[in-house]
Design brief:
By secondary structure, the chain is α/β, with parallel strands linked by helices. Helices cover 26% and strands 22% of the residues. The strands form seven sheets. Strands 5-2-1-9-18 form a five-stranded parallel β-sheet, with helices on one face. Strands 13-12-11-16 form a four-stranded parallel β-sheet, covered by helices on one side.
């Protein structure tokens, strides 16, 4: 029976592992002891009732395969080295190690208990704070502002964006920006664009402490807490110094073929944030990439050629501002952009944040 090692237990990794579990010996290696539903992390940062719901066990995911909590030190060909363990020899390797991002959008701790303790401290700090500064006006900064405003309506919230407008990366329509700015104004959120901070606050991210900072243009901001809402980075450090380094871009992403095979490697695939696929890094995209990998590895196991290719799908933007507000940008079958407002966005994602979908995927009640 073929052995497949999946490096990383995020959205793409669990989809690959579950899909290939009936066909091969699957070993899922993940640094964290529990799956973290990052799409709901910002809700958990402000609402205590969500603190435990975003951490889900891997125990029910695989029927035949094995879950290993461990840190991959390097991958050489199809041999996966995990700290404190014997090297794992595999027939196929799937790189699904995701990306890193500042707290609270993502957590660096390998133990859910430690991450939950940090969340508890954050909740306490938010109750004591009167003002918050968010640095970055992309989707994370905007969504976090909406969550903060919904749970702490008396909190003074400022978003600082160095570009001339929010959602500055390509792909966002002017209509979406205007709808989001209208709702931010309704929530009383201060928006400063076109100038970066002259210097950072003297406190760590999420640490309670009053401070005053200025933008390069001289605009003053006072707050009790601040958060960095930018800085995603592909989690591919374990490939540095290996033969895979030649396939890495400077930003840490790895070159993949349309089949999602790593450039130059027939039996190594990659999915999700670590790939250099030209599209926004989204959970649904990672799952769709995973389905291509499942089909291709299944074909190889049968002795056939991997012929399934991944084509980036329509860019849907679902941007909630708390459970009852937000806006979405959808494309219809003719390629025309549609903007949905608060009610429709809340219906799509705002209330549940896909928790029930992820629990079902992990075979949890």
């Amino acid at each position: 029976m073929a052995r497949i090692v999946v490096v990383g237990g995020g959205y793409g990794g669990v989809t690959v592992a579950k899909g290939l579990d009936p066909l091969a010996e699957v070993i899922l290696v993940e640094q964290k002891d529990r799956f973290v539903h990052h799409a709901a992390a910002l809700r958990a940062a402000v609402e205590e009732t969500w603190q435990h719901s975003i951490f889900m066990p891997y125990s029910n995911l695989l029927t035949h395969g094995t879950f290993i909590q461990g840190t991959v030190s390097r991958v050489e060909g199809t041999t996966v080295h995990v700290y404190g363990r014997e090297p794992i020899e595999a027939d196929y390797v799937v790189l699904a190690s995701g990306s890193t991002y500042p707290f609270p959008a993502k957590y660096s701790s390998s133990r859910a208990q430690v991450a939950q303790a940090r969340l508890e401290q954050l909740h306490e700090n938010l109750r004591a704070a009167r003002s918050v500064m968010l640095v970055g006006g992309g989707t994370v900064g905007i969504e976090f502002a909406g969550e903060l405003a919904a749970t702490h309506p008396d909190l003074n919230i400022t978003i600082v964006e160095k570009e001339q407008d929010i959602l500055s990366t390509p792909g966002y329509s002017p209509k979406l920006r205007e709808e989001i700015k209208t709702q931010l104004a309704e929530l009383g959120i201060r928006l400063i664009t076109g100038s970066s901070l002259a210097y950072l606050p003297p406190f760590n991210v999420g640490e309670l402490g009053h401070f005053t900072v200025q933008t390069v243009d001289g605009e003053e901001i006072q707050a009790d807490l601040w958060f960095q809402c930018y800085g995603a980075r592909a989690n591919s450090g374990f490939l540095a110094g290996t033969s895979y380094e030649e396939a890495l871009h400077p930003d840490g992403t790895i070159r993949v073929e349309p089949t999602l095979q790593v450039n130059g490697y027939a039996n190594t695939y990659a999915v999700g944030d670590i790939t250099d696929v030209r599209e926004s890094k989204r959970a649904d995209a990672a799952r769709q990439q995973a389905r291509v990998v499942i089909a291709n590895i299944s074909a190889q196991i049968r002795g056939e050629q991997p012929e399934n290719v991944y084509r980036p799908t329509k860019e849907w933007v679902i941007l909630p501002l708390g459970p009852r507000m937000g806006a979405s940008q959808l494309l219809d079958d003719e390629g025309n952009t549609r903007i949905l407002g608060a009610d429709e966005t809340a219906e799509i994602k705002g209330a549940d944040l896909m928790v029930s979908v992820i629990r079902a995927q992990l075979n949890l009640p």
